[in-house]
From TrEMBL:
Motif Histidine triad motif in this chain: 95-99
InterPro entries, per the entry: HIT-like (IPR011146), HIT-like_sf (IPR036265)
Domain HIT: 6-112
Protein name per UniProt: HIT family protein
Top-level taxon of origin: Bacteria
Amino acid sequence: MDTICITCRIINKEVIPPGGIIYKNNFVILHHCLDINIGGYFILSPVRHVEGLEQLEPEELSQIANLSKAIIEVLIKQKDIDRVYILSLGEETSHFHFHLFPRYKWMLDFPSEDICTNDKIDGGKLFSFIRNKYKVDKQELFDNRLLEILNSVREWADL
């Protein structure tokens, strides 16, 4: 296991994400992204340190799929979120994880050269642009929108 794995440090409570751990069981953990000030931008990971989807056990895969679906249903009910992207990139940490990234309506107001390819919304480009634009120090993450969405998810999860 990677000794500096940020996800393992979150699981071991050495690092506390904004709003704390939203959901955790024996198989999966859900928390808000550590450093992007976009309410509802969640990271979903298996608890067990694995580096790729192909290494997941059936129960881990099932839990990730079911929790992803449930969280997306909660996010889509928010008045200003019209889509949720699911990405797995693995460039910053080797611990396999998914980004559950809400696309707010206001994100489409940026210049098309920043978020479009061939005059169409480019999800990957939009994701990278927004992540760069809204990257902050952890202390700056606690705004009302973030807390409102965290509470909606906690309510769903009955936490």
